[in-house]
Amino acid sequence: MKKPAEVANGSLMANQKRDLRYEWFAPGDLNGFFGLMFDNFTVLSFLAGILIFGFQFPAEIVYKRMFPGTALGVLIGDVVYTWLAFRSARRTGNTKVTAMPLGLDTPSTIGIALTVLGPAFVGLKAQGMSPNEAAMMTWHIGMATMVLIGIVKVALSFVGSWVQRIVPQAGLLGSLAGVALALMGLLPALEIFGMPVIGMIALGFVLYTVVARIRLPKEFPGVLAAVAIGTALYYIVRPFGLAGSAAPVPPSLYVGLPLPTLSFFKGFVPALNYLPIAIPFGLMTVIGGINNTESARVAGDEFNTREILLTEALLRLSPVCAAASRNRLPTSASPPTSRWAAGQGTPY
Q1: How far apart are alpha carbons 117 and 273 in whole angstroms?
Q2: Which residues touch 245 (CB under 8 Å, ≥6 apart)?
Q3: How many whole angstroms separate alpha carbon 348 and alpha carbon 335?
Q4: Phi, psi of 335 (to 5 degrees)
Q5: What angle do CA 81, 100, 115 make, to 5 degrees?
Q6: Of 3-12, 17-26, 171-180, 250-259, where does mean pLDDT reach its minimum?
Q7: pTM of the model
Q8: Rg of the Cα atoms in the chain
Q9: What pLDDT score does 324 carry?
Q10: CB 46 within 8 A of CB 106
Q11: How confident is the model at residue 330, as a pLDDT?
């Protein structure tokens, strides 16, 4: 039988959880949103640049077929992660839970483009297909590859918590930091020093607001300020030849909707040829999901590793969004957003 004091404490905790007010929006959500949005835009630009400029892939297929489904998959995943954040807040009584954001995984997105999509497109053209026909078939192969990787990830998601328990924290977070330095740090740094006048000023704003955590007037988001100032400087200094040596690309507008499709079945047989290359990238995203969940735990946010991994895996298997254009690999992004006082509104 419980003692009266234990009963009273249990009732008090239950009342506190019932009275928990987990707000839809926190001030840091703006910085978190723009930081993650521009990060995803950067990864998409890498994907488009590799395919269009590296392999002469038709731009219309990239922008109207691949990108819409990618965006929808990220949106649905973020909605699920937002729900998980609300559930975690109710379970733990923590009103400062930061939702795990879901976005594009940089290493695997670049890797799949270079080792699966690009070579498949070149090979299909060599077989006599026109560029548009080869691009559409490559899209089918890419979708089929993502579905096959999703099947593997569903199975691996059930061992994620076990891996998180047996691997030392330094091992989990160290690999996460290594990827961040190598890809998220090095590649953008090359772009910064390609246009130092613009890049260093924009970087300075990010260091000032995000790293030093000095607030701008009126709580203006620091990441948005950096992008806005960098963009304005580019168009101001470009006439004077201070915007780098690269010729500006004329802007083009492509409108596409993420329509459901089962056409990935057409790419299943040829996708098997690329499976030995693609599976390691899928395994990499599983490891990344485990690492990011551990990173969130260190920051004070408790999430179930299996649920985080299953969300990613099941999105790959969905013909509504995942197969609509799955030529990208979403993964739970590392949650530095908790340092920005972001909440569950961050994924949006």
Answers
A1: 12
A2: none
A3: 14
A4: -95, 65
A5: 95
A6: 3-12
A7: 0.78
A8: 22
A9: 40
A10: yes
A11: 39
177 contacts: CB under 8 Å, gap ≥ 6: none
Kindly state the tokens that stand for 220. Answer: 């203006």
- Encode 105-116: b = buried (16+ Cβ within 10 Å), e = exposed: bbbbbbbbbeeb
Predicted confidence band of residue 129 (pLDDT cuts 50, 70, 90): very high
Amino acid, res. 57: F
Among 109, 165, 128, 43, which Cα is nearest to 284's?
Answer: 109
Q: What's the pLDDT score for residue 169?
A: 85
How do residues 303-339 score in pLDDT, each as one tens digit? 999 999 998 888 877 654 443 444 333 344 444 444 4
Q: What angle separates helix 305-317 from helix 131-157, to the nearest 10 degrees?
A: 150
User: Which is nearest to 299 in space by CA: 332, 333, 331, 336?
Assistant: 336
Distance of CA 112 to the CA centre of its chain: 15
Given the structure tokens 């799955």, which residue do they identify?
Answer: 326
By residue count, the chain amounts to 348
H or E element that contains 177: helix 169-179
